[in-house]
Design brief:
Blueprint lengths: L3 H16 L4 E6 L2 E4 L13 E10 L7 E9 L4 E7 L6 H12 L10
Protein name: Phosphoribosylpyrophosphate synthetase
């Protein structure tokens, strides 16, 4: 469990990203990225996604309590976030997908303010 300061930090990051237009919540299913609540979407392949930024959060009392929040933009302009725990508790589908995006050299387009 994260301490109060880190929770506020995560909330602050999420609020800032939301104000910057990163409003979709993403999930990875069957190797594709989907916005939550959009069942009509066919999802996005790794080549249709750019990692705009990412933020790491570590648990002070337990080094295994780490998570990462990614700010993503899709080829059609949809902006949103996805988060995953690190290590043993990580979402391997999401982490594998994001690794494929990174391997394409499309990561870290830090043009958002």
């Amino acid at each position: 469990m994260q301490d109060k300061e880190e929770e506020r930090s995560l909330v602050n990051v999420e609020n800032k990203l939301s104000k910057d237009g990163f409003t979709a919540d993403f999930r990875v299913t069957d190797g594709r990225l989907f916005p939550f609540g959009d069942d009509r979407s066919k999802g996005y392949a790794p080549e249709e996604v750019t990692i705009v930024d990412f933020y790491r959060f570590e648990g002070e009392s337990n080094p295994d309590d780490m998570s990462i929040l990614y700010a993503l933009q899709t080829a059609d302009g949809t902006k949103g976030t996805i988060s995953s725990a690190y290590g043993t508790y990580g979402d391997s589908d999401a982490l594998d997908f994001l690794k494929r995006v990174e391997d394409m050299g499309k990561n870290l387009d830090k043009n958002h303010k």
